[in-house]
Design a protein that fits this description.
Layout (H helix, E strand, L loop, with lengths): L2 H4 L12 H6 L1 H6 L1 H12 L2 E6 L3 E6 L2 H10 L4 E2 L2 H4 L2 H4 L8 H11 L5 H28 L5 E4 H18 L5 H23 L4 H6 L2 H24 L11 H7 L11 H14 L2 H16 L1 H13 L16 H13 L5 E6 L3 E3 L2 E3 L4 E5 H5 L42 H18 E5 L7 E3 L3 E3 L4 E6 L1
Parallel strand pairs: 2-8
Antiparallel strand pairs: 1-2, 3-5, 4-12, 5-8, 6-7, 9-12, 10-11
Helix pairs in contact: 9-10, 9-20, 10-16, 11-13, 13-15, 16-18, 16-20, 17-18
Bound molecules: protoporphyrin IX containing FE.
Protoporphyrin IX containing FE binds next to α15, α16 and α20.
Length: 466
């Protein structure tokens, strides 16, 4: 059976989940979107019309060919929707939220900043953060009764991932209290933003209680904090060796046409977006990764064997050595299949379009449901099983096109994907070098899909030193 046979054999008319049903189910959808969307798609088909939040007409899909059509083949006919653009109020118009010619100009300016040479330097900085974390955690483990410490791995990884992205952007210049404040503000803004989207009927309440105003104030505080660091960097003597971080990359970049640098406000927007996009996504991927390895000690043992065979027993790997550790890369890929940090993508049709006989009128809102795509039983054998080997180059069956999109697809593909893969593989290898992990319960943890797919509540693991 081919992939196109198993997904949406008939696209011309789409099943419609009635409005009364989505309205009735909107609270359940707000509480447990993943379970509810899975149920709807299993019942009605891979592409379904429904009402988001019980009110807003949308098409949700886990069809890889339709995802490819929207993200890549016909991407010019689609923009991100107000669900993404709403973030502009708090974080500005950076790569993630920008559109059109402006987006392309910024993308051309920024993308070269993530080339191999910079990633080599950024990997050293990631090593420093991981070393600091593992030393400090090692001390806590040794001080714990019986040398066994129970930790919320999500809390740990949120700190590690924020330290990595903050250091990648600002170098070593940012003080810890300010790093913590930045992280706290970004978390608050995201959590509030998701509530305004998922429960739009609460907006008058948020306006009346000054909640919008409070979050606007957070956003101003964030900008002022970052502005201070930008100005501090600009004031550094031109004779001093420039730091090899992302802020310097953004300051040094020049537009191809004018040879001018970015304006300060544009720079602020881009820094905001890099911090947002590069923080929770990686933190969640890393949390799920360690959770899965705690439940699959055979996979953890194989990662350790691979590391030892590559001669890395006593030190952290360099950027150039990471490709020599393919099994650990497969573990990372499989984690993001089961728990894609960006679990849903939104697009809206700019003009009328058509896909395999399906009429798509201008204004149609699409939710491309990556979580469902990554666990589609017609695309993945044993979709809920953790099997890193399925990503081995010679694995059978091969992975169908556009069935695996943790970093999106087409021209809006994640600009930080190599950065993120490097970071996750490195933290994985160093984490397993120093620690053994055991789950504290046999129960599967719940998911809390906000902008990114977080674990619901703490993700407890018992840790001993390896
Ligand atoms: C596991 C980690 C990550 C995941 C799963 C992830 C996922 C994604 C996805 C799915 C998109 C496309 C969104 C869409 O098409 O609507 C995206 C875009 C983006 N990501 Fe990531 N990301 C990760 C880490 C990072 C990091 C570390 C950075 C920065 C250092 C970053 C910066 C960005 C930016 C700036 C965009 C917008 C690109 C554009 O539209 O031109 N991401 N990411």
């Amino acid at each position: 059976m081919s992939v196109s046979d198993v997904v949406d054999a008939q696209m011309v008319t789409l099943p419609q989940v009635p409005r009364w049903r989505t309205l009735l189910g909107s609270l359940a959808m707000a509480r447990q979107p993943v379970q509810n969307l899975d149920r709807v798609l299993t019942q009605h088909g891979d592409t379904v019309r429904l009402y988001l939040g019980g009110l807003r007409p949308a098409v949700i899909t886990r069809n890889p060919a339709l995802a490819q059509h929207i993200l890549q083949k016909n991407h010019r006919r689609y923009l991100k929707s107000d669900l993404t653009h709403g973030l502009i109020r708090y974080l500005g118009r950076g790569l993630l939220t920008n559109e059109g010619a402006d987006w392309l100009r910024q993308r051309r300016l920024i993308q070269p900043g993530f080339h191999r040479q910079r990633l080599t330097a950024l990997t050293r900085l990631m090593q420093d953060v991981v070393e600091q974390w593992s030393t400090e955690l090692g001390r806590r483990v040794q001080a714990a009764p019986g040398g066994r410490l129970r930790v919320d791995i999500h809390e740990e990884m949120t700190r590690v991932a924020f330290d990595i992205i903050a250091r990648a952007v600002f170098g070593t210049s940012m003080r810890e209290p300010e790093r913590n404040r930045l992280s706290d503000i970004l978390t608050r803004i995201q959590a509030f933003y998701v509530r305004t989207v998922r429960q739009p009927y609460l907006r008058p309440w948020f306006a009346a209680t000054g909640t919008f105003g409070r979050h606007d104030a957070f956003s101003r505080e964030l900008r002022e904090l970052i502005r201070g660091y930008i100005r501090q960097r600009q004031a550094v003597s031109p004779t001093a060796a420039p730091p090899d971080d992302l802020l310097q990359m953004l300051l040094d970049a020049r537009y191809e046409d004018s040879q001018e640098p970015m304006s300060e406000n544009q720079l602020l927007d881009e820094v905001n977006i890099l911090l947002l996009a590069g923080h929770e996504t990686s933190a969640n991927a890393l949390s799920w990764l360690f959770y899965l390895l705690a439940r699959h000690p055979e996979a953890a043992a194989r990662v350790r064997q691979e590391r030892a065979a590559a001669g890395l027993a006593g030190r952290a790997p360099e950027f150039s050595e990471l490709p020599q550790l393919p099994y650990s890369q497969q573990v990372v890929q499989e984690t993001m299949r089961l728990y894609p940090p960006a679990w849903i993508l939104d697009r809206v049709a700019l003009e009328d379009d058509e896909f395999r006989g399906l009429r798509i009128p201008k204004g149609t809102l699409f939710s491309i449901y990556l979580y469902g795509l990554h666990r589609h039983p017609g695309l993945w054998p044993e979709p809920d099983a953790f099997r890193p080997e399925r990503f081995a180059p010679a694995a059978r069956p091969p992975i169908p096109a556009y069935a695996y999109l943790p970093f999106g697809g087409g021209p809006r593909l994640c600009v930080g994907s190599h950065f993120a893969l490097t970071e996750i593989q490195l933290v994985l290898l160093e984490g397993l070098r120093w620690f053994n992990l055991t789950p504290t319960s046999a129960a599967l943890p719940g998911t809390d899909p906000l902008i990114t797919l977080r674990p619901k509540g703490p993700l407890w693991l018992d840790i001993t030193t390896a």
